[in-house]
Amino acid sequence: MFSNLLGMFSADMAIDLGTANTLVYVKGRGIVLNEPSVVAIRDLRGKKQVLAVGDEAKLMLGRTPGNIQAIRPLRDGVIADFEVAEEMIKHFIRKVHNRRSFASPEIVICVPSGSTAVERRAIQESAEAAGARRVSLIEEPMAAAIGAGLPVTEPTGSMVVDIGGGTTEVAVLSLNGTVHARSARVGGDKMDEAIIGYIRRHHNLLVGEGSAERIKKEIGSACPPEDGEGRVMEIKGRDLMNGVPKELVMSERQIAESLAEPVSQIIEAVKVALEHTAPELAADIVDKGIVLTGGGALLANLDYVLRHATGLPVSIADDPLSCVALGSGRALEEESLRNVLIRMY
Amino acid sequence: MGDQYGQQQDLRNMRQGGTAAFDTADTAAQAPAGPRHVGEALKARREALGYALPDLAANLRIRLNFLEAIEEGRWGDLPGHAYSTGFLRSYAQIVGLDPGAVLLRFKQDAAGHEPAPELYFPEPVNESRVPGGAVQLLSALLAVAVYGGWYVLSASNRSVGDMVPALPERLSKLIYGDGTVVEPPPSPTPMLNAGQVEALVEGSAPSAPEVGGAGASPLPAPVQRRDPDAGTPLPATDTSPVAEGPVNDEDSEVPQLPDLGQTGLPPAADPATPDVEPVAAGEAAAMPAPPAANAPTATPEQVVPTGRVFGQAEGNVRVTIRAVEDSWVEVRDGKGTLWASRVLRRGDLFRAPDIPGMVLNTGNAGGLVVSLDGRDLAPLGAKSQVLRSVPLTPEALAGR
């Protein structure tokens, strides 16, 4: 009763705590924050201080002196560094939650469907420590499907593939519940690593994570072009042989080759999920197909590859990067979706 | 993002053996202009490229009827909004149109048709409860009634037996066989004042109705009974044994009747006239007043109606308490044993056992008369006066 009263004054929020980006959706206002999940911490005579969070901190990533660390507190979709993650959540909440309202907000946070109870509890505790009045969790594929506008509450099968920074979530949903979900620990980060590894192996050039991500966004493709090398891009890094900075031109074909490994893992996850789908739901999916969400859906030709691997229509959701945050926010706002929220205790 | 799609679409066109890459500004201008809806624009574009719809369906893995629905603008036949946009995007990409512009146009076209999908979740059906509302209400009423009845009974400190009205005297006499058919009690007479009686004495008969009018039922008989002059023949009846002879001498005046009116409450009068012998009445008929005279002398204290007796049942007791009004009494002995704790009704008698240390608590001191060895003592106190720890031993009472 009292908490309901407080709820009128607090800006309840939904947080898509992603490996790569954190999005915050505030009730009634939409997505108000979209920043990289990076925290820069300065070690001042043994005392740690948060120096920067989000965009500022991302610029520091890989460019820090010894007393500053730029940390990504999430790895593979789950919190790897609790203290830093807590600081980051606190920072985002403070940034979003206007100081005038005295009530602490109710928070909905996304968790990968494959996360363990310990991981979920850790996320919930971090959010509570960051000043939430009440913390609920929502499974990422469910949030993604709601955000993409799929009819998850109806008795019809919907298949969603959410390719995030750390994990790829494949799920078949029906009647507000998850019929089958698979979480593969492959995503944008793995693609970046694959690109780094490929360039080092083939060209003895070491590039940073930031550069690798830029390459992926610009000329990355899930399948090589049919003829020729495709688009090309200049890549800068450090030569491993003689240790000097060096520039190199990479083609789309080469990058597609390097991405073959993570892409095939995604395809595998989708195929396994389809195998485990009940026939009635499979029939629904044959008609309507698969919906791709998450940043990974922006990888060129991924829908084409998946379409040919599965033989199903594959659609990319509108604004795939925001689907999860939008869906979590909708679950927070709409009473009929309340039962998709999870509370650990 | 749009940039990426543009590049992607170039790739597609190459893969499909498509002709040329179209710059987005061109298609964006093209799409909204000519055709009626986005489906026609796509169809025109497809036909210009020379693709057959079934080939497209096979390539995109989208069912043919969905593609036809798109081209004919039948938005209602498409699956949900999320899927339709995906289909349109794929279609736009494969025919080399800008997906962003196509989707924008589609949203305008289909805006009126498809409202934002309502997400609702079926509520669990409530199990029908076994007892219906009516049954519950009924049982609640029943429970209240039972409790109320119990409460009334227990609160008034009466047993069910007490609630039965006392047997009317007439009937009890029948039962115990000590009388002939009993006349109605002379209760109405008190209602008469002196003047009326005078009138009655003189002119008997006509007065009957008048008396009846005075309010009491079986009047004619008593009235006539009182007729002295008629002397006789008649019914004039009532002379209680008590009232005979001496009393007559004493109270020969009719005007004493008003007293009767004051004191002669029916119950008080009743016992005074237990037997009514017509013959005896005839003898006594000379005096009109006997019954009237009789009543005033019978003080209430002397009347012991059908009172109940409490306390020591057997043997002789020296102290008794008689209630002349309803009074609550509590009697304890020296050891604290409770002998009585109840309301003595008018006429009830409590026989106090002869035990040292007996004390009386009462809520109505004026309603009790304590007798020691048959002698009434002075009243304990005023009406409704609460007295505590009045000694009930003969020794203590002797001093009063």
UniProtKB/TrEMBL annotation, chain A:
GO molecular function annotations of the record: ATP binding
Keyword ATP-binding (UniProt): yes
Superkingdom as given in the UniProt entry: Bacteria
Alphabetical UniProt keywords: ATP-binding, Cell shape, Cytoplasm, Nucleotide-binding
Entry GO terms, CC: cytoplasm
Gene3D superfamilies: 3.30.420.40
Record note on quaternary structure: Forms polymers.
Job of this protein: Forms membrane-associated dynamic filaments that are essential for cell shape determination. Acts by regulating cell wall synthesis and cell elongation, and thus cell shape. A feedback loop between cell geometry and MreB localization may maintain elongated cell shape by targeting cell wall growth to regions of negative cell wall curvature.
Family: Belongs to the FtsA/MreB family.
Protein name: Cell shape-determining protein MreB
Organism, as annotated: Niveispirillum lacus
Gene name of this polypeptide: mreB
From TrEMBL, chain B:
Ranges for domain Cytoskeleton protein RodZ-like C-terminal: 320-388
Top-level taxonomic group: Bacteria
InterPro entries membership: Bact_Cytoskel_RodZ, Lambda_DNA-bd_dom_sf, RodZ-like_C
Region Disordered: start-end pairs: 204-276
Molecular function terms from GO: DNA binding
PANTHER family, per the entry: CYTOSKELETON PROTEIN RODZ, PTHR34475
Protein name: Cytoskeleton protein RodZ-like C-terminal domain-containing protein
Record organism: Niveispirillum lacus
